[in-house]
Specification:
Blueprint (H helix, E strand, L loop, with lengths): L4 E5 L8 H17 L2 E4 L5 H12 L4 E6 L3 H4 L7 E5 L2 H11 L2 E4 L4 H15 L6 E5 L6 H12 L7 H4 L1 E3 L2 H10 L1
Parallel strand pairs: 1-2, 1-5, 2-3, 3-4, 5-6, 6-7
Helix pairs in contact: 1-2, 1-8
Length: about 180
């Protein structure tokens, strides 16, 4: 099965490292160049807006899924192909999972981690078998990856972290992985 649509989970803020914004924009453009559609949170701010703008500039379909309560907060993107306004965060995540063929996680905050861990949990429980890639830009997720490896070493995971989560450092590496599936 080739990857047609990729869900991107990331911050609705830029973060402090300028490289985060550079990688988010680059990933959106790379998606477009590869002809893969973007599924994301529907906002026009932060890394979320950057990845959407990069994908739109490259000419692919951009599908946003935003809960009603975040419309003002994340400034819904007016220029994307489709915007689904949903009741809450649970509906948002479920719809994004259903639409995508794979997921990539860029730097972000609590919501991004929630989305990452729900994807991993669903994958482990065999609710889906979608590939999950963590873009560890400038070591942003080093401590998280180390903690997950410690969870494994302490006997709390059913399999190795690497079995469910592929970790890369750049948008180019993430796209190479997506194209290899």
């Amino acid at each position: 099965m080739s990857i047609q649509s990729v869900a991107v989970f990331c911050g609705s803020k830029d973060g402090n490292d300028p490289q985060f914004l550079i990688e988010a924009t680059a990933f959106g453009k790379l998606l477009g160049t590869a002809g893969m559609n973007l599924v994301y949170g529907g906002g026009n701010k932060g890394l979320m807006g950057a990845v959407a703008n990069g994908a739109m500039a490259a000419g692919v379909k951009v599908i946003g899924v935003i809960p009603e309560l975040l419309i003002a907060w994340e400034h819904q993107h007016e220029g994307i192909t489709e915007l689904h306004v949903v009741a809450d965060m649970h509906v948002r995540k479920k719809m994004m999972y259903e639409i995508c063929d794979a997921a990539i996680i860029l730097p972000g905050g609590n919501g991004t981690l929630d989305e990452l861990f729900e994807m991993l949990t669903w994958n482990t429980l065999k609710i889906h078998d979608k590939k999950i890639i963590l873009l560890n830009c400038n070591g942003f997720y080093d401590h998280l990856v180390a903690h997950m490896q410690m969870m494994q070493a302490q006997g709390f995971l059913y399999e190795s972290v690497e079995h469910r989560l592929m970790v890369v450092s750049t948008a180019k590496e993430a796209m190479s992985l997506l194209q290899s599936f």
